[in-house]
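Lay summary

Proteins are chains of building blocks that fold into shapes. Our project writes down both the chain and a compact code for its shape. Here are two examples, one after the other.
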Amino acid sequence: MILILLSLAFGAGLPEINVWFPEEEGVPTKIAQWCEPPVVNVCKDSEIKLKDVEGAFLFLNQPVVEIREVRNCHCQLRLGEIQFASTTCKDISPLHGQAIITYSDGCISSGIVIIRTQEPIVLTHETGHALGWTHTSLFNHVMNPEYEGVGWFKLGME
């Protein structure tokens, strides 16, 4: 099992536990994928809205079997699940956004997305990581890791 932590830093210092993938010169690459569709849980007591998570998946052309709001978020990785949380997991991420996935043999088995901002681009960027995408240096691309360079361009993610 491999654990990967990916973050949109917005200029913040990165904790030593982060594994930063180098920015790709071209389009982002997919390091793994969900071989079985995940259940997507949006923490009801967070600031993340269900419609925003649905919008991120739609933008990334990712079909999802089930997106639901849940109470009592666990802030832990669980097999077959992507959890979206914010201040409910305040001890996990000091950054504006962070995604953690586990995968083996090219298949993602669990993920958690933690968001500290209401900006839809951050939610979409971190959702991209939860779906296995790496960073790119392309300006205005949704997977650009720098706040000044991130945007709604998604070349290579179709």
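And here is the second example, written the same way.
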Amino acid sequence: MLSTSTILAEQSEPTSSPELIVSSSQTAIASNDAYISSGSTIPVGERNSTLFKRAATMFRQGVPYAEVEAAIMGVNIFHLEKSLPDNEALSLIKSAARYHEESTSITLPSMRSLSSYAECPPDVTFCVEKIAVIGSVSMLTGASGIGKTFLGGELVISVASGTPFLGLATEQGDAVFVNTEMPEDAMARRLWQQRQARGLPLDTPAHIITTAGTGMSLNEIHDYILAECHARDIQPKVIFVDSFYLAHSGGDECSATDTTKRMLVLQSIAQKLGAAVVFAHHETKGPQAGKATLDKASGSGVLGRFVAAHVSLSRLDAPSRIEKGSALNPFEPVELMPYRFEWGKHRYTLPPEPVDLWFGHPIFIPDSTGELAGYNLLEGSNSSQRREKTAKAKSNRLVDAIRAHIDTTGEKPTRQELATALDMSPDTLRGHIDKAVDASLITVDSSSRAHRFSVVNS
């Protein structure tokens, strides 16, 4: 294998004519590049990353430096919407050569005597206090649909802005969200709303890498993340991967061997970029209340043993509440849902105390009053059970409001009166009323212009 210095020095004139090299090398490039194979030009916003990735691909295929340079400079001239200056294109090629060398070389540390440490070595570095360790991998688990993506988005936004995450200190720096599940615009909308809800500036350095729908393996995602960060000269503090089951495609999550291989790939990302990697993963099926957090992750026990920290997000068996203004719109009511964030393991400290939270779309808010401390986790981990229990709680609130109005005024309430009492819009209330009527909990008196409501058997 050529060293970086050898590759960079290999810039003599090619043995074949530049035209032939450009033609033959671009044929190889075109087979893997949608723009070039279709005959279209590469837009301005994608010039750097496209040229870098094409150069890196050619180096990985063993193409000599001079031929890579000739081919990429040809692409720069003929296939870009607007060509880069020659010095910028040449710099990208050199960066791709360095990236190739770094990604294919292994440096093993030598044995070191304890007596060689004149002072106590430094402690590990957290980019998110008690969760994300530089150079290591941590895991966030939770039931499907519980809100792991929202929480991961907040983690990325918090590090990018250097603001606390669930009250925990962060080290500010670039942060990357690896989106394996959603269309890019949908994920960008969530992060954009979270940034706006927290009042952070537009230039907050949060980035999205979307692999959803590509079928990329974790090894390919590994190379893609490194290539994108090198091409854009980004050295992220944290990388959140959402989620592990898609990045794990092609392997058996219950296999210790398969899982270990994939965890080592994530650790390689962390160590090569000097970042903390946190990934989202689903929990085992069935009730989670009463289980130790460490036992909730689905698949091989390697997951819990490998990670630096394992944190879990769960719903609490507590009533939701309505606030008058949402984080995005001060004039729009928002429903706050109760959650608990807890540690199952921490390699470097004792597991911290759980953090109780309210979720008001699109952000989580720590419970500063302690009102959630006495509640247990909600039984039933799957989303249908949670929705059923939530719907029942809302119907009970509606029934209680009808009874209270009748007891106070002696009259059946109208929809507008109930909406005022429950602090929600009449349109939102309409859905709750329909469900309560279908469940034979309330009846509708339509004899007057404004429909009035009463409780069955009351």
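What can we say about the second shape? Residues 126-366 form a domain with the Rossmann fold fold (CATH 3.40.50.300).
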